[in-house]
């Protein structure tokens, strides 16, 4: 296995950039997503910076429409950083719906900025994983990637890798109730020889063609479809809850209130 590239920018540089994107809002957290999180960044991969922020109260209660998502791309020291930050209320609504991307971002081991409230958010996040949401998110995204593989004129290794990564993450979540987004770590359990080869090809070259990987496109698609079947079977057998309990939603709602009014000593709920 080729060792994946470490982040080419410092945490301080990324934290400063993130703060500038959400200003004058306050950062709840930011973390790394994309190929660096998934275990197959090439030397010219961009950096995907994600997270949530608290908008100023004046903006929240204004008659003007609140901007709930900020997307800013910037090249820093020759490295492209693509950032997406959601205002905390929108972010929490996505979490309540069990959005897989959001849960992966909160639990990402590559953290950049962390507020004092973040530890509570990280503790709550896994409680929004249910059989339905895990199956829906990971099955849906893998189907989109496989469709892209079939119709894309340039069959690239990274497209099929994204499909395998998301399927393996979903299956692992249903089996263990844990989120692991790194395909190299996942493959220590799955032990697919072809995954190591694909990862090495992607790390060595961002746009490595799938035709050089040793099997036909149809072969890789068939393997992924087998995993989609496994995902469905694991959802049926999983001990994840069928739906999110109301107590978890209440705790998240209380956290939202605390973030909005950190100096208010009154009870969040009467």
The major pleated sheet works out as: 5 strands, mixed
Number of helices: 12
Question: Any idea what the CATH architecture of the largest domain is?
Answer: 2-Layer Sandwich
CATH-level-4 superfamily name of the largest domain: Beta Polymerase, domain 2
- Roughly how much helix do the residues carry, as a percent range? 40-55%
The first-to-last residue Cα distance is 57 Å
Rg, nearest Å:
20 Å
CATH class category of the largest domain = Alpha Beta
Total number of domains: 2
Q: In words, what does this structure look like?
A:
With 270 residues, this protein is of the alpha+beta class. The chain has two domains: 133 residues, Beta Polymerase, domain 2 (2-Layer Sandwich); 107 residues. It has twelve helices and five strands. Strands 3-4-2-1-5 form a five-stranded mixed sheet, sandwiched between helices. Helix 8 crosses helix 9. The longest helix is centred in the middle third of the chain and has 21 residues. The C terminus is likely disordered.
At a glance:
By secondary structure, the protein is of the alpha+beta class. The protein has two domains: 11-127 and 245-260, Beta Polymerase, domain 2 (2-Layer Sandwich), CATH 3.30.460.10; 131-237. It has helices at 11-22, 35-38, 57-60, 88-96, 100-106, 118-124, 131-151, 157-176, 183-190, 193-204, 217-237, 246-260, and strands at residues 26-33, 47-54, 69-76, 79-87, 111-114.
Helices, strands, pairings?
Layout: H1 11-22, E1 26-33, H2 35-38, E2 47-54, H3 57-60, E3 69-76, E4 79-87, H4 88-96, H5 100-106, E5 111-114, H6 118-124, H7 131-151, H8 157-176, H9 183-190, H10 193-204, H11 217-237, H12 246-260
Parallel strand pairs: 2-4
Antiparallel strand pairs: 1-2, 1-5, 3-4
Helix pairs in contact: 4-12, 7-8, 7-11, 8-9, 8-10, 8-11
């Amino acid at each position: 296995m080729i060792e994946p590239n470490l982040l080419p920018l410092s945490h301080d540089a990324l934290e400063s950039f993130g703060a500038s994107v959400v200003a004058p809002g306050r950062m709840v957290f930011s973390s790394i997503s994309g190929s660096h999180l998934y275990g197959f960044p090439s030397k010219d991969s961009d950096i995907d910076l994600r997270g949530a922020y608290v908008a100023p109260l004046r903006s929240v209660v204004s008659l003007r429409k609140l901007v709930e998502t900020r997307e800013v791309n910037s090249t820093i020291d020759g490295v492209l950083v693509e950032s997406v930050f959601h205002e905390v209320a929108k972010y929490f609504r996505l979490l309540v719906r069990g959005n897989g991307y959001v849960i992966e971002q909160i639990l990402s081991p590559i953290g950049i900025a962390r507020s004092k409230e973040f530890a509570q958010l990280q503790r709550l996040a896994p409680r929004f994983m249910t059989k339905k949401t895990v199956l829906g998110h990971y099955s849906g995204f893998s189907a989109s990637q496989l469709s892209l593989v079939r119709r894309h004129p340039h069959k690239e290794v990274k497209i099929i890798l994204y499909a395998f990564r998301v399927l393996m993450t979903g299956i692992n979540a249903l089996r263990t109730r844990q989120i692991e987004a790194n395909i190299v770590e996942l493959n220590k359990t799955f032990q697919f020889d072809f995954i190591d080869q694909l990862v090495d090809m992607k790390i060595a070259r961002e746009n490595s063609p799938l035709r050089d990987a040793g099997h036909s496109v149809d072969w890789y698609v068939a393997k992924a479809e087998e995993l989609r079947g496994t995902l469905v079977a694991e959802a049926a057998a999983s001990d994840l809850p069928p739906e999110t309990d109301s107590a978890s939603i209440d705790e998240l709602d209380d956290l939202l209130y605390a973030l909005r009014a950190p100096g208010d000593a009154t009870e969040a709920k009467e």
